[in-house]
Design a protein that fits this description.
With 59 residues, this protein is an all-alpha fold. It has helices at 2-13, 33-51.
Length: 59
Protein backbone atom coordinates (compact mmCIF):
# COMPACT_ATOMS: atom_id res chain seq x y z
CA UNK A 1 0.00 0.00 0.00
CA UNK A 2 1.80 3.13 -1.21
CA UNK A 3 -0.07 5.63 0.99
CA UNK A 4 0.70 3.62 4.10
CA UNK A 5 4.39 3.46 3.14
CA UNK A 6 4.49 7.24 2.72
CA UNK A 7 2.78 7.85 6.07
CA UNK A 8 5.08 5.38 7.84
CA UNK A 9 8.07 7.20 6.33
CA UNK A 10 6.75 10.53 7.58
CA UNK A 11 6.10 9.12 11.06
CA UNK A 12 9.56 7.53 11.17
CA UNK A 13 11.43 10.64 10.00
CA UNK A 14 9.90 13.58 11.78
CA UNK A 15 8.16 14.96 14.78
CA UNK A 16 4.52 14.80 13.68
CA UNK A 17 2.50 17.39 15.57
CA UNK A 18 -0.88 17.03 13.88
CA UNK A 19 -2.58 15.67 10.79
CA UNK A 20 -5.94 16.03 9.08
CA UNK A 21 -8.04 13.90 6.78
CA UNK A 22 -10.22 15.68 4.23
CA UNK A 23 -12.81 14.57 1.70
CA UNK A 24 -14.42 11.87 3.80
CA UNK A 25 -18.07 12.67 3.13
CA UNK A 26 -20.58 10.17 4.55
CA UNK A 27 -23.38 11.43 2.28
CA UNK A 28 -21.37 10.29 -0.76
CA UNK A 29 -20.26 7.01 0.83
CA UNK A 30 -23.39 4.88 1.26
CA UNK A 31 -21.44 1.68 1.96
CA UNK A 32 -19.08 3.32 4.47
CA UNK A 33 -15.98 2.06 2.65
CA UNK A 34 -14.27 5.46 2.58
CA UNK A 35 -14.90 6.02 6.28
CA UNK A 36 -13.48 2.57 7.14
CA UNK A 37 -10.37 3.12 5.02
CA UNK A 38 -9.85 6.59 6.53
CA UNK A 39 -10.24 5.21 10.06
CA UNK A 40 -7.83 2.34 9.39
CA UNK A 41 -5.28 4.70 7.83
CA UNK A 42 -5.57 7.11 10.77
CA UNK A 43 -5.13 4.35 13.36
CA UNK A 44 -2.09 2.93 11.56
CA UNK A 45 -0.52 6.38 11.26
CA UNK A 46 -1.17 7.21 14.92
CA UNK A 47 0.34 3.88 15.92
CA UNK A 48 3.55 4.62 14.01
CA UNK A 49 3.73 8.13 15.47
CA UNK A 50 3.42 6.80 19.03
CA UNK A 51 5.80 3.90 18.38
CA UNK A 52 8.53 6.32 17.33
CA UNK A 53 8.20 8.72 20.28
CA UNK A 54 10.18 8.22 23.46
CA UNK A 55 7.95 6.89 26.22
CA UNK A 56 8.27 9.99 28.41
CA UNK A 57 6.71 12.23 25.73
CA UNK A 58 3.21 10.77 25.99
CA UNK A 59 2.88 9.78 29.64
Amino acid sequence: MILNDILVGIADKGNVICFDFVEVAPQYDPTGATARIAAMTMLNFMGHIIKNKPRYEYI
